Structures are given as structure tokens and as C-alpha cells.
Amino acid sequence: MLQQTYIDRLITTALEEDIHYVDVTSDYLLDDDHMSEAYYLAKDSGVLCGITIAKRVFEKVGGAFHMDIQIHDGEAVQKGDIIATMSGSTKTLLKGERTALNILQHMSGIATATHQCVELVSGTRAQITDTRKTLPGLRQLQKYAVTVGGGKNHRYNLSDGAMLKDNHIDAYGGITPAVRALRQKIGHMVKIEVEVRTLEELREALDAKADIIMLDNMSCEEMRKAVEITKGCVPLEASGNVTAETIRSIAETGVDIISLGALTHSVKCFDISMRISAK
Asked: What would the mean pLDDT of 200-227 be, rounded to a whole number?
């Protein structure tokens, strides 16, 4: 769920960045009472996400504005579909156009990419999750978009759970002492995930009673062996070198979770245009 206060702060920041004090083109070209109709046109096919946030952008710009939404978050959109129609102040439509599209295209890109990954692993036990590799200030939007696409969220931030990655383990001196030290200090509701690079480290993490184990950049053969060794006693997360070409093979090893930083840090924007209806 997205908090309205967060959305409004984000939009305000984006609009202040885009309109320093005046829109030289729209403010000098058009009268305040100039009205227009517009629409969002899908130029690709996928999963829509962020339409109500796009609507909120125009509301924050100010001026007369109304939007009729035809396709909602989580719904499939086909190339050529009209996503929404709008009417109101031409200045409002033009001033909010880029900020609203930036958000809508980015979120729809994440939802679409996530949905594609979910479809690729369909029929296996693997769940698709995001990571903390998000753009500063956009984490809530990006993680929401992952869920709209059918994925699950990994921890939201460093306060949500303990995760011993390679640098933690190397800095502290090993998996076993690091897990033991954390167990002595964390509360009973906090889980510990341990990143392992080898099957030997996997066995050590199991002996240390890790709650979740991440298999870092392992081959599919190694992951299958990890599943056999673990025998379902703890969830296994596959991470690293996950692509559209490899994700199905990874899922078929029997891992429980596949995490992809690419869902948020390098996703392709979904192509959408806003068109002003000709007079």
C-alpha cells in the first residue's frame, strides 16, 4: 500500500524540479481559461501501474482537471489501448504531462517486467522478489509496482531483517560467529538470512540455524545440490546472474525465491504517450 503523504511529497518534489517558477512555454502561450481534452495512449503491451499517481500529479499542478480511467493498476494493456481520457485547463495538462508520464511509464515498466518473470517461472515453486537496489526516494513506488506485477517484496530496508552478506561475514570472521552474535542481540521476531557462495558455506549456515539462505551466483547444478542438502528445512533464495534466459532453469532447481535487482534498478520504461485532442 502506498501512503498518500509519501505520494504527495514525491510529486511536489518532482514538480518543483520540473517547474522552477514558471513554465515559459505554457504560461506565456496560453490563457488561464484555455481548455483541452487529452488521452493516454499505450504504445506497448504489458501491465499498467501508477495511473492514480499520474492523476494526482495533475491535481497537484492545480487548475481545472478531470480524468476518466479506462485501465487500472494490475490490468493488462495492449498496444493502441486508450488508458485514460482527461479534460481541463490546457496549462494544467501541459505542466503535469512529463512528471506524470515519467512516473506512469517507470512503474508500468516494473510491473510488466515482474509479470514476465512470474510467467516464466509458472508451475514451479519459485517466487519472484525485488531487492533494495532501488532509486533513491522511489523505493515505495518501485516495490509497489513489483507487487502489481505479481511479485513479492524482499525486505523494505535494513531495519526489516538481518541479512549477512559476504562483506558482513568476511568482516566479522565467519558465518557461525556472525549468526551467533546476531542471535544474542536481535528480537525474537527478526529473521536472519545468510548469503553463501559455496555448498560448504551452505552447510555451515544450516548448522548455524539460519532462517533463510541466499545462494549467491551459484550454477544451476550447485543450486540443485543445495536443494537436496537443505531438504526444505529453510527457504532458499537464488540471486545473481538471473536473466530472462536463465530464470526458468533456476526455478526448476527447486529454490523457493528468485530475487532480481534488475526489476527496479535497470528496467525499461513502458511506452505511453499523452495526446492533446485536436481542436
From this structure: 97
Residue 278: pLDDT above 90? no
The reported pLDDT for the residue numbered 24 is 96
Going by C-alpha positions, the residue among 48, 22, 62 that lies closest to residue 104 is 48
> Cα(100)–Cα(203) distance, rounded to whole angstroms?
49
CB 79 within 8 A of CB 44: yes
Torsion of the alpha carbons at 20, 24, 25 and 26, rounded to the nearest 10: 70
Closest CA to 86 of 45, 107, 47, 56: 56
Of the candidates 155, 36, 122, which has an alpha carbon nearest to the alpha carbon of residue 146? 155
Q: What mean pLDDT comes out for the span 231-235?
A: 96
**3-class SS of residue 258:** strand
Residues with a catalytic annotation lie at: 98, 133, 165, 195, 216
Secondary element (H or E) of residue 214: strand 212-216
CA dist 37 and 86 (Å) reads 6
Which stretches of 100-231 are assigned E, i.e. beta strand? 127-129, 162-164, 192-196, 212-216
Buried b (16+ CB within 10 A) or exposed e, 76-86: ebeeebebbeb
Task: Give the 3-state secondary structure of 202-266.
Answer: HHHHHHCCCCEEEEECCCHHHHHHHHHHHCCCCCEEEECCCCCCCHHHHHCCCCCEEECCHHHHC
Cell of 200: 560448504
Determine the 3-state secondary structure of 174 from DSSP: coil
- Is the pTM value of this prediction over 0.70? yes
Phi, psi of 250 (to 5 degrees): -65, -45
pLDDT in tens, 190-207: 999 999 999 999 999 999
Q: How many angstroms separate the CA atoms of 41 and 84, rounded?
A: 8
